[in-house]
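Example 391, ligand zinc ion.
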Amino acid sequence: MNKIMKKSAILFLTFLTFILIIYSLCSVIKIVYAKNSNVIYIDPGHGGFDGGASSKDKEVIEKDLVLDISLKLEFYLEQMGYKTLLTRDKDTALAHTKKEDMHKRLKLINDNNTLLYVSIHANSYPDKRVRGSQCFYDNSLEENKLLASYISEMLKTINPYNNRKEKSITGKYLINNSDKVGCLIEVGFLSNQEEVSLFKTKNYQEKLAYGIFLGILKYLGHNGDSMSRNNKNNLQLNSVRLAIPTPTDMERLGWLIESICYPKIVFAMNGNLGAGKTTLTKGLGKALGIKRTINSPTFTIMKVYEGKMPLYHLDVYRIENSDTDFELEEYFDLDGISVVEWADNIKDLLPENTIYLTFTILEDGVRRVDFVSSDTEFIDKLNNIAGEYIC
Ligand SMILES: [Zn+2]
């Protein structure tokens, strides 16, 4: 009897060791797998038949608001070279039932090479005074909390009054069942009137997207190595945000920038009509000693100005992404300065060290210009020469 027990004990221990070895092998495989992933998944909540929450006046529907924010976030992440995927990029559900829709979202995030994901929602609450964004995470992974805390921290810079802390949560299908690092972001409350009027402005939507973007960058920076980046050449993360009070200052900024330009530099500009893209280019032209009047080349697509260095001023408003009829990218190889307006239309053609400028019109007429680039030196120099405009 004793012998049999001894035998069973040995068998059991062997079995236990075997399980432990398999388990640790699995963890190693899991880590290696995660290190090779490079996709950031954005999940705009709801869509199609499922509108989610809505404001009292029905003017803001959660599914539309979170999609707008998600598309802006996608833009920022792509500028930084991250491969970004969305569970939906238009007003559609992924299936006919809510249950099936959620299954599909989870499958997309889990089955792809996902480095991290964010699921974006807006909240609603019976007490109309409640407001502020908040991040929720599943506490099975320590990394989830870290990501949620960085995004919370960055979102708080928009609303310093907001004292909501990131919180672990159960009962949320997607985040509780995903095996990837991620969190759920409630960008604010559709039941709060003040927040609803903010949600209606593009400016506030941009701020929310930018806050989430910075939180993700901080998380990825914390993680250190370049595994997360889609770029083969070790893309570094650099950005500067400027607030430009008047058109004269915008021209001055262009004039200042000339001093840090070099041959083959490419400026890719995006932002609404009248946001300051051409005004900045005018200042740059003046500093280059260009006598001709610089105006927007909307109808000609391209204008060349002779100065200290040639200035190639492109306006690709009318060009579809990567339209091969125009060999625009050839200009990027010439020894001049290229300025591309509505650059998002040809984003696939832009060279790696492109300086991306996003212009935003703020409510009081001030223009915000976000510079994003992998060109560390340029961003550093810009920090020095345009210090007075940094916000
Ligand atoms: Zn929701």
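Summary: The chain has a mean pLDDT of 85.
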